[in-house]
From TrEMBL:
It catalyses: ATP + (deoxyribonucleotide)n-3'-hydroxyl + 5'-phospho-(deoxyribonucleotide)m = (deoxyribonucleotide)n+m + AMP + diphosphate. Belongs to the ATP-dependent DNA ligase family. Its cofactor is Mg(2+). The gene is lig. ATP binds at residues 248, 255, 270, 300, 341, 418, 424. Keywords: ATP-binding, Cell cycle, Cell division, DNA damage, DNA recombination, DNA repair, DNA replication, Ligase, Magnesium, Metal-binding, Nucleotide-binding. One of its GO terms (molecular function) is ATP binding. It comes from Thermogymnomonas acidicola. DNA ligase that seals nicks in double-stranded DNA during DNA replication, DNA recombination and DNA repair. Pfam families: DNA_ligase_A_C, DNA_ligase_A_M, DNA_ligase_A_N. This is DNA ligase. Residues 329-464 form the ATP-dependent DNA ligase family profile domain. Its EC number is 6.5.1.1. GO terms for biological process: cell division; DNA biosynthetic process; DNA recombination; DNA repair; lagging strand elongation. The keyword Aminoacyl-tRNA synthetase does not apply.
Length: 586
C-alpha cells in the first residue's frame, strides 16, 4: 500500500469530530492494507512495535529542524521562525516540502512498508554516527514525500501523531473489517492477554478467529492487569460477594507483573512497559526463591524502611507515583519488597481460567517467602466484625485498605477488566467520598485576575468504555499551587487543538480543547445530577448527566495511567448509586 493512501485517510481522521466516523474511516483503510496491515496498525498508533518491546521512536526536535533546513534552501533561522509560527513540526515539514515540490523529478514511491522500515532504522540505530544515520534516513523520507506524507512522517518520528484513536477504536475497526460484530468481546479479551494490535490484526485478517479466541497469558508478553471495583463498606462487599470472601491487604505501591521463563526474569508495569532494570534486587530474589520453569506472577512493589522493615506508603517516598526516574531513585535509596497476590501461568500451563482459590494455592506453592518476596496477607471470612478488624490492621500496617476477592467457582483472572470479582475498600480519609477519581483533561478555560495568563479551570472527563469516548464530569479550578497553576499552559501547549477531538463528548465549550492525554487525581464532595455534563447522560434522569461537586486536584498527576485508564462512567454511576443508598439510610 502506498503511504499516501494512508495519509489521505489520516487527514480525514484528524478532521472528524465524530467517533463513529473515525472508526469507519479507519476500518476502510485497514481493509485495503493487504500485506501491509501489520505495519499500518503500528503506524496508526505512532509506534513501531508494542511498548513492551522497548523500541522507542523519537527524533529530537533540533535534529528534525536541522534536517528540514538541509533539504530546503532555508537556513536554520528561517526554519526556526517558520516553526515558531506553525507550532507544529509536522505542518512545518509539509510547508518545506510544498515549497520545493516542483523541483523533485525522480521521486521514489513511498510504501507503508518502506516508511515503516525506514522508521525502524531511525529507532534502532545507536552509537557513534547514529545521529548522521537518523538524519539521512529522515531526509530521504522527506525528499520522497509529498507535503501530506511529510506532515505525518514527521509527526510519527517526533512521537506526536495523535490521530485520536485508542486501542479500543482500533479493535473496533479491526472487528468491523475482519470479523463478526458478535466477536468484539472475544477480540478484546484476546488483546488484553496479548496486547499487540498488529498480531491480533494479522490473525483476524487470516480468518483465524479460533486462534484469537484461544489467546491467553504467555510468558514474555505482559498482560493488561485485572482491576477492582469499589464499595464503601464491608457490609456492602459481603452482600455483593454472597456472604463470604477472601480479603487481602491493599498495598500502596506499584503494580508489577513478574514473568519467569527460559532462565530469565522480566518485570512489566501496569502500563505494559518493561521495568526489569528498575528492580535488580527483585530479579535476584525471584531467581533464588521461585524455582519454576515458567510463571507469570502479579503483585505490588512497595518500598520499605530499611531500618525498621516497615512499609512506606508510596506517597511518602514519591509524590509523583509512577514516574520512572522517581522509581529508580526510590529503589536506589530504599529497598523494595514485592507482595504477590496472583499467578496466571505456571510451568507451561495457563491459569487465567482457574478459580481464585486454586490460583492462590498454586501461588503459595510457587513463591517461597523471603525478605524481598512476600505473599499478600489474606483473611477468608464471613464475619463482618472480623473483616473490620483486619481492615484496621491493614491501615496500621501502612496499606490503603483491603481488596476483597470472590471465592466463587467462576472467579477467573479477567485481564484488563474492572469487575465485581475484586472489590476494593479504601479508608474514608475525609468525610467525603471514599475514593478519588482519576480524570482526563479535555479542555481549559482562560483565567482572569490573579489567574491571568494561565487557565482558570480545566474541563475534566471520565472514560465511557462502552462508547470509547471521554465524557465531561466537572470544571476543575482548585487544589493547584501557584507553581503548578502557572505551568499549565506550557504543560498542555502541545496538546491544545482547535477542533473538539473526535472522542470527546461535551456540551460545554471550553476556550481551548485539549487532546486527551493527561490524567489527574481529583477529590470531590459528591456526585450530583447535572444538565451540562455528559457523563452517563440520560441514564439516571432525562437530559441530565452526572457531575462531581466541589472538585479539587489532589496534587497527583497519574502518569501511570493512560486516558483510557481513567475512572469510568460505570464507576461514577456506582458511586452515585451507593451515595443515594446511604442518604436514604438503606
Ligand atoms: P487506586 O488508585 O485505588 O490504586 P487503581 O485504579 O490504581 O486504584 P484498582 O484496580 O482500582 O487500581 O485497585 C487495585 C490496585 O491496588 C491494583 O492495581 C494494585 O496495584 C493494588 N493492589 C494492592 N494490593 C492488592 C491486592 N492484594 N490485590 C489486588 N490489587 C492490589
Amino acid at each position: 500500500m502506498l503511504f499516501s493512501e494512508a495519509t489521505e485517510v489520516f487527514e480525514k481522521m484528524s478532521r472528524t469530530t465524530k467517533r463513529l466516523e473515525l472508526t469507519s474511516l479507519l476500518s476502510e483503510l485497514l481493509k485495503r492494507a493487504g500485506d501491509d496491515l501489520e505495519y499500518l496498525v503500528y503506524l496508526v498508533q505512532g509506534k513501531l512495535l508494542p511498548d513492551y518491546r522497548g523500541v522507542e521512536l523519537g527524533m529530537a526536535e533540533q535534529l528534525i529542524l536541522r534536517a528540514l533546513s538541509e533539504v530546503s534552501s532555508l537556513d536554520g533561522e528561517e526554519i526556526e521562525e517558520m516553526y515558531r509560527k506553525t507550532g507544529d513540526l509536522g505542518e512545518l515539514a509539509g510547508q518545506v516540502v510544498s515549497s520545493r515540490a516542483q523541483g523533485t523529478l525522480f521521486r521514489q514511491e513511498l510504501t507503508v512498508k518502506y516508511v515503516y522500515d525506514s522508521l525502524m532504522k531511525v529507532a534502532t540505530s545507536s552509537g557513534q554516527g547514529s545521529i548522521r544515520v537518523k538524519m539521512s534516513i529522515y531526509k530521504d523520507l522527506i525528499m520522497n514525500s509529498d507535503p501530506r506524507d511529510a506532515v505525518y512522517i514527521t509527526r510519527i518520528i517526533n512521537g506526536k501523531l495523535r490521530l485520536g484513536v485508542s486501542d479500543a477504536t482500533i479493535l473496533d475497526a479491526l472487528t468491523l473489517s475482519f470479523a463478526e460484530p458478535g466477536l468484539r468481546d472475544g477480540v478484546s479479551e484476546a488483546y488484553n492477554f496479548y496486547p499487540d494490535l498488529a498480531y491480533i490484526a494479522r490473525l483476524l485478517r487470516e480468518g483465524r478467529i479460533d486462534d484469537v479466541l484461544k489467546i491467553g497469558p504467555q510468558p514474555g508478553v505482559p498482560v493488561k492487569v485485572m482491576l477492582a471495583e469499589r464499595l464503601s463498606s464491608v457490609h456492602e462487599i459481603m452482600e455483593k460477594m454472597g456472604g463470604r470472601a477472601a480479603f487481602e491487604f491493599k498495598y500502596d505501591g506499584i503494580r508489577v507483573q513478574v514473568h519467569v521463563f527460559g532462565g530469565q526474569v522480566r518485570i512489566f508495569s501496569r502500563g505494559l512497559e518493561e521495568t526489569t532494570g528498575q528492580f535488580p534486587d527483585i530479579v535476584r530474589a525471584v531467581k533464588e526463591e521461585v524455582k519454576v520453569e515458567s510463571a507469570i506472577l502479579d503483585g505490588e512493589a512497595v518500598p520499605v524502611n530499611p531500618e525498621t522493615g516497615e512499609i512506606y506508603p508510596f506517597q511518602v517516598v514519591s509524590q509523583r507515583r509512577g514516574r520512572k526516574h522517581d522509581l529508580e531513585r526510590v529503589s536506589e535509596e530504599v529497598p523494595i519488597v514485592v507482595f504477590f497476590f496472583d499467578i496466571i501461568y505456571l510451568n507451561g500451563r495457563q491459569l487465567h481460567r482457574e478459580a481464585y482459590g486454586e490460583r492462590r494455592r498454586l501461588l503459595r506453592e510457587t513463591v517461597r517467602e523471603s525478605e524481598r518476596l512476600r505473599i499478600a496477607r489474606t483473611l477468608v471470612s464471613s464475619d463482618e466484625g472480623e473483616v473490620e478488624r483486619f481492615f484496621n490492621e491493614s491501615i496500621e500496617y501502612g496499606c490503603e485498605g483491603l481488596v476483597a476477592k470472590s471465592l466463587s467457582e467462576n472467579s477467573i483472572y479477567r485481564a484488563g477488566a474492572r469487575g465485581w470479582l475484586w472489590i476494593k475498600l479504601k479508608r474514608d480519609y475525609e468525610a467525603e467520598m471514599s475514593d478519588s477519581l482519576d480524570l482526563v483533561v479535555v479542555g481549559a478555560f482562560s483565567g482572569h485576575g490573579r489567574r491571568g495568563g494561565t487557565y482558570g479551570a480545566l474541563l475534566m472527563a471520565a472514560y465511557d468504555q462502552e462508547k470509547d469516548e471521554f465524557v465531561t464530569v466537572c470544571k476543575l479550578g482548585s487544589g493547584f499551587n501557584d507553581e503548578m497553576l502557572f505551568s499549565l499552559p506550557k504543560m498542555f501547549q502541545q496538546l491544545v487543538t482547535k477542533e473538539k477531538p473526535a472522542r470527546v463528548n461535551s456540551i460545554m465549550e471550553p476556550d481551548f480543547w485539549i487532546y486527551p492525554s493527561v490524567v489527574l487525581e481529583v477529590r470531590g464532595a459528591e456526585i450530583t445530577l447535572s444538565p451540562v455534563h455528559t457523563c452517563a447522560m440520560g441514564t439516571v434522569a432525562r437530559d441530565s448527566g452526572l457531575a462531581l461537586r466541589f472538585p479539587r486536584f489532589t496534587g497527583k498527576i497519574r502518569n501511570d495511567k493512560k486516558p483510557e485508564d481513567a475512572t469510568s462512567v460505570m464507576e461514577i454511576l456506582e458511586m452515585f448509586r451507593s451515595q443515594k443508598k446511604k442518604s436514604v439510610g438503606e
